[in-house]
Amino acid sequence: MLGRLLKSLRAAGASASAGGGAAERNEAGLAAWQRGDLAAAEREFRAALAADPGFAPAYGNLGMVVWDQRRLDEGLAILRRGVEIDRAHVGIRINLANALVIGNQHAQAIEHYAEVLRRRPGHPQATANLLKPLLDTCRWDEAERLVGGLVERWRAAPDDAVLDAITPFNTLLVELPQAMRLDVARRYAGRVAARAASLQQVVRAPRPAGGRLRIGYASADFHDHATLHLMAGLFEAHDRDRFEIHAYSWGIDDASAYRARVRAAIEHFHDVRGLGHDALAQRIADDGIDILVDLKGYTGESRAEVFALRPAPVQVNYLGYPGTMGAPFIDWMIADAVVVPADTEGTYAERVARLPGCYQANDRLQPIAGRASTRAQWRLPQDAVVFACFNKHHKIERATFAAWMRILAAVPHAVLWLLGGHGKEALRGAAQAAGIDPTRIVFADKAPKPEHLERHRVADLFLDTRTYNAHTTASDALWGGLPLLTWPTDAFAGRVAGSLLHAVGLPELVVADGEAYERTAVELARDPQRMAALRAKLAANRLATPLFDTAGFTRGLEEAYAALAPASGTLARK
């Protein structure tokens, strides 16, 4: 996932011993970068290097700015050059490691974080950033030690600098106290607000009464991306008589069918890649947006600084980030009664606007390949029970995998079908250690979305991960006709699959605990008639229940927007 990883960290920093010209241009580049003006930042960093080709910090900064503009190989080469020039500069090395993680070169990233920690034991950013690649590669021993240490620090030393280095998204991937997740989000939001305070502030003119409600969706993901896979139908179903829809897109134009579809569906589609944070915020304000919807939250390529500048009177966290943003500049989060039960609201900074059914948009028109595939085509045994999970490897925790191995031990004729990823070898080793033949784990390659949806039909049951559930992947399974078994946690990210199953009329597949999860999977594997009945029930419910009723969902979301509108008087904060 390409993203702005630890924005406060990206700046490699200036060297007091460097030539004045290079240092000054480097500082100018940092200022442009903070504004979100990547083109200007690149010019300044290149000018710094022209003034002093040996000025290492400019390499560290330039490499990340080039990387942010998706010139990935060039960005990595620049960062590596910076490390070669000054091997002791931890900021440049961390920037390189961050880029390597996003570029799916996890082993190298881990080596660079480890080198920083060798030089500076306990370094906050290296400590915090190491977690994600450890999870991606299923190095559970190291990840669990790291998480345990972070929780101890949070409980014992609230001012510990490591806690300020943790990215909120990473807290969703591991078992943590909900209060710690909220604290980390608030710390991060405070840093975002501080950066935004130095930018040109927004002037927001009063909106005349009457007219359509103006909704702005802000994201980098208006292309072939999981967010648009879910939301394309919603954009097409919006009621143009009541709502004026704007999209603010700072991501790539991949020339895909998804991009063409969203451009045709949205009344005002703004490609704002060249605008800095303050210019974009002013543009949104000038458009008179009533409700601004953040579809990124604290995920890759987010621009939370835009929201911190308050371009709209009502600002909403929806879909892209399944947790609290902990931010005074985000007023509401869109949820439902399953993902955020009423008794958990205290762990969210936003007020909760609940939709009547599942909070997650789904596209009733998403195409499934018409040509039926075979198990042989996907390297699956013909007569086996096929348990599947197409979640990324960072969602597979030790306890979940151990449950899967016990299920396979109880069902000798079963295999586990997983998406390929960086944890393959570690997962094979864990299977071997559990007494399971590693060849009983079959890894799937990526496939075009219509083919991926269709291949769910050759599996028998989707086994969900627990701490961070299947979200889009759960919708994919259900849309593709594959029943899914889940075991919820007490946090938003661990309750999404349960919400989907309730909305599609399969609440019996939401079980209470790990014992029920394992028992249900084994019982279904041993009872082909019951398994077939579940599949038949899903087939009957798929288009007859709310989950894939895109038009009905859109009406419910629109009613929520109407209730949140500035004139409604419902904006009072908790």
Question: Remind me, CATH topology of the largest domain?
Answer: Serine Threonine Protein Phosphatase 5, Tetratricopeptide repeat
Helicity level: 40-55%
Which CATH class of the largest domain? Mainly Alpha
As a percent range, the share of strand residues is 5-15%
* Uncertain stretches: 1-19, 568-574
Q: What's the number of helices?
A: 25
Let me know the average pLDDT.
94
Number of domains: 3
Quantity of strands, as a count:
12
Kindly report the name of the CATH homologous superfamily of the largest domain. Tetratricopeptide repeat domain
| Spatial gap, N to C terminus | 34 Å
What is the makeup of the main sheet?
7 strands, parallel
CATH architecture of the largest domain: Alpha Horseshoe
Structural class call reads alpha/beta
Going across the biggest sheet, name each strand in turn: 3-2-1-4-5-6-7
Q: Compute the CA-based radius of gyration.
A: 24 Å
Characterize the overall form: globular
What does this protein look like?
By secondary structure, the chain is an alpha/beta fold. The chain folds into 3 domains: 191 residues, Alpha Horseshoe (Serine Threonine Protein Phosphatase 5, Tetratricopeptide repeat), CATH 1.25.40.10; 168 residues, Rossmann fold (3-Layer(aba) Sandwich), CATH 3.40.50; 172 residues, Glycogen Phosphorylase B (Rossmann fold). The chain has 25 helices and 12 strands. The protein has a 7-stranded parallel sheet, with helices on one face. Strands 10-9-8-11-12 form a 5-stranded parallel sheet. The protein is globular, with a radius of gyration of 24 Å. The two termini are 34 Å apart.
